[in-house]
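Hi all, posting the design record for the shared folder.

TITLE: backbone redesign
STEP: 1 of 1
STRUCTURE INPUT:
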């Protein structure tokens, strides 16, 4: 492999979900003399033909991400990927819906979260063994010591502002989608390759997904009523999924006693601040398990695709609002170890799904592999020159996920430096709207 320039491009779709993890990889790569360009996904992808060819680290392998891969390849870039959609999916049946059949043609290596994911790519998507590195995911690194210490100040501020709390994370976008009604949501699922609209199996899977989210939506509302009655000393903080409409939750609950509906802040900081996490098959349940925080996954009758999600393999499950209230009351009122049942099996699942046995952190394994792709001849004095970049229009969904700014990125880097031994904080330079370059002392050349 011959990379034309020592530049790594990292498009980020969701700041809250991805930015800190991508900054870990970015700083590690930059410390070796590589220029790293990081920023809003849509802006970077739109300008792949206007920047010097390098390596592009994408966030997934679905139909849309595969189109980004093709664009990058045509522009002379090399493509690697972390599959953020597969971060907390446990079943190949669901994993494969977010992996385009053409991805193996364009993606030189995928950083897989676990062996289940690796086998699915090889057996069903035509990937070769050498195209897959089981590395875990840097989001898992951030949830565990020592890196999760960067959340402490934010978590303490949340705890002070909201007092004792139960954090409630919804994951019911099929019935409360930012994209609109079910017909529009179906079209979006088809556009990203999650289903084939001409295949009856695609319609069945979509209907199962809708049924799951509808059952979860109804059950969660019932559980919220039970929690309010069972936990008189706790606030209930509802944090809807980024792909859900905020308004229905706000309109129903924000003005009620001890309820709060929020969307800002790091999901990991909220988890750390909460006494208990309640969710409906949400990734935040897996993150809570990684952080060692108590979590309940509400899986009601009718939640027919609950087996897709890692959270339901690593959290204590409840089937009804009454079960949720009972577990919460035992834990938070009576001080019982309400999470004890099944703990050993859940911990085994956690280790397997997030590849926690490895000696290196996920971000270090990924950065090391990326650096190998530049070969031995990284030139720290390389001058990154970009003449002009296009301005792009954001979508409603992406606009809800990003507020990139140099100050925000600098603040995150400062926190990482504070908690991570040996972390070499890069300098940051803004090169376009919501696009930034990172470089370290080994690599001071500027555009």
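Okay, here is what came back for every position:
SEQUENCE:
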């Amino acid at each position: 492999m011959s990379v034309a320039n020592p530049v790594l491009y990292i498009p980020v779709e969701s700041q809250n979900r991805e930015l800190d993890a991508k900054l870990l990889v970015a700083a590690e790569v930059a410390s070796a003399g590589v220029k790293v360009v990081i920023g809003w996904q849509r802006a970077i992808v739109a300008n792949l033909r206007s920047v010097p060819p390098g390596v592009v680290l994408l966030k997934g392998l679905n139909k849309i991400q595969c189109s980004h891969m093709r664009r990058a390849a045509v522009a002379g870039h090399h493509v690697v990927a972390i599959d953020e959609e597969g971060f907390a999916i446990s079943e190949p049946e669901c994993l494969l819906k977010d992996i385009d059949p053409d991805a193996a043609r364009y993606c030189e290596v995928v950083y897989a979260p676990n062996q289940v994911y690796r086998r699915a790519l090889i057996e069903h998507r035509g990937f070769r063994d050498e195209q897959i590195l089981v590395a875990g995911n840097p989001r898992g690194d951030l949830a565990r010591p020592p890196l999760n210490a960067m959340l402490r100040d934010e978590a303490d501020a949340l705890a002070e502002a909201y007092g004792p709390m139960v954090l409630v994370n919804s994951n019911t976008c099929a019935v409360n989608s930012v994209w609109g009604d079910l017909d529009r949501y179906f079209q979006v699922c088809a556009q990203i390759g999650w289903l084939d609209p001409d295949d009856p199996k695609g319609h069945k899977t979509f209907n199962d997904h809708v049924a799951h989210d509808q059952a979860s939506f109804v059950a969660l509302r019932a559980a919220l009523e039970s929690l309010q009655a069972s936990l008189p000393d706790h606030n209930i903080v509802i944090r809807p999924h980024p792909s859900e409409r905020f308004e229905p939750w706000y309109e129903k609950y924000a003005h009620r006693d001890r309820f709060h509906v929020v969307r800002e802040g790091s999901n990991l900081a909220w988890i750390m601040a909460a006494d208990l996490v309640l969710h409906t098959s949400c990734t935040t349940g897996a993150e809570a398990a990684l952080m060692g925080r108590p979590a309940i996954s509400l899986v009601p009758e009718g939640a027919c695709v609950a087996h897709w999600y890692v959270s339901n393999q690593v959290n204590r499950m409840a089937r009804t609002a009454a079960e949720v209230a009972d577990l919460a009351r035992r834990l938070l009122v009576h001080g019982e170890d309400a999470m004890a049942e099944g703990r050993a099996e859940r911990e085994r699942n956690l280790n397997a799904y997030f590849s926690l046995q490895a000696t290196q952190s996920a971000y270090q394994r990924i950065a090391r592999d990326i650096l190998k792709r530049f070969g031995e001849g990284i030139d720290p004095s390389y001058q990154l020159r970009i003449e002009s970049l296009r301005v792009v229009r954001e979508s409603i969904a992406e606009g809800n996920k990003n507020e990139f700014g140099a100050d925000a990125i600098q603040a995150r880097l400062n926190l990482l430096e504070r908690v991570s031994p040996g972390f070499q904080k890069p300098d940051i330079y803004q090169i376009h709207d919501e696009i930034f370059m990172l470089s370290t002392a080994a690599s001071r050349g500027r555009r």
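COMMENT: The mean pLDDT is 92.
Let me know if anyone wants the other runs.
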